[in-house]
Design a protein that fits this description.
It contains 11 helices and 18 strands. By secondary structure, it is α/β, with parallel strands linked by helices. The radius of gyration is 22 Å and the shape is globular.
């Protein structure tokens, strides 16, 4: 089953013609999970032909406008489309005070319910879990309380070795037990070890989203070994002073975090409007962490192994 990330926006606070405000959509097990919701997110969502009905959970990293101003419009649109299933939003506790009056005024007759779930951005903790996924908060270092998110696929079952199960005439009814690690006992009470009847399960895949943040090594133990890391790279090294003043990162600093965390791939984004060509940022990051790619609107990234 595919685990993908679609970039809806990878610009920073100042609007440009090249990049939209921050937003991404994670797709796993036929469900969509949104990270941040800057202005224009719903237009990007539609442009990518994503299914609004599959979106059930939105994670807001922090309460700066370029990461959340698109939320009321998206909620209103979902109502006009006749949505009836609940929508869950995970954000700093202040999000309720900020958005509830807006929703009460503009979205009084929604055909569905919106639930806000508060979490503490200064803690790394499990903030969401369903059958296929866990989401863990990642404390970041920014001008306001900010958290990234680690999307961790739950461990899948083992794979059946069909040749061996046919040989030992394992009934279909026993396959679930085999996938969960049980041995098989034949009619003449011979114990066939599970390792002979199955292949190891695929390793669980992990995607880390870290925007906005200054260089912050405390996140390394949380994101260590992730299949893919998205890390903000707002500035080039020549503008490092400005990065420090605004609690953002340079592309080189993002790459250094990726290198020290031992991730498999780095995606850089949240680009400052001052750059008309992000190849400079890619070059600076690539010198430190070669497997670096640029985020861009409408790009889709596979997390770990692509599976059918």
């Amino acid at each position: 089953m595919n685990f993908t990330v679609t970039i809806l926006g990878c610009g920073s606070a100042l609007p440009t013609k090249r990049h939209c405000m921050s937003s991404q959509v994670i797709s796993l097990r036929d469900k969509l999970y949104m990270v941040d919701c800057g202005e224009g997110t719903q237009l990007q969502f539609r442009a990518m032909k994503l299914n609004f009905r599959r979106l059930g959970h939105i994670f807001i990293s922090h309460l700066h406008g370029d990461h959340c101003f698109g939320l009321p419009g998206l909620i209103s649109t979902l109502g006009m489309l006749g949505r009836t299933s609940d929508l869950h939003i995970y954000a700093h506790p202040d999000a309720i005070a900020l958005f509830k009056p807006v929703l009460d005024y503009f979205c009084r007759e929604l055909p569905y319910k919106v639930f806000f779930h508060s979490f503490n951005p200064s803690l790394s903790e499990l903030i969401f879990e369903d059958k296929g996924l866990k989401v863990i908060s990642i404390p970041l270092k920014h001008r306001v309380p900010t958290a990234g998110f680690l999307f961790e696929e739950k461990q899948s079952d083992k794979h059946i070795n069909r040749e061996m199960t046919d040989f030992y005439k394992v009934p279909i009814a026993k396959m679930k037990e085999l996938k969960e690690g049980a041995d098989f006992v034949t009619e003449d009470e011979m114990v066939i070890p599970n390792c002979r009847l199955t292949y190891p399960a695929d390793p669980a895949r992990r995607y880390a989203y870290c925007s906005d943040t200054a260089y912050y090594e405390k996140i390394i133990p949380i994101i260590e070994g992730a299949d893919v890391l998205y890390h903000e790279a707002t500035f080039a090294e020549a503008d490092l002073k400005r990065a420090n003043e605004t609690f953002h990162s340079s592309a080189a600093q993002a790459a250094e975090i990726a290198r020290k965390a031992g991730v498999k791939q780095l995606i850089i984004g949240h680009f400052s409007a001052r750059y008309t060509d992000e190849d400079l940022l890619l070059s600076e990051a690539g010198k430190i962490f070669p497997n670096t790619v640029l985020a861009d609107e409408k790009k889709v990234f596979d997390i770990g192994r692509p599976r059918i």
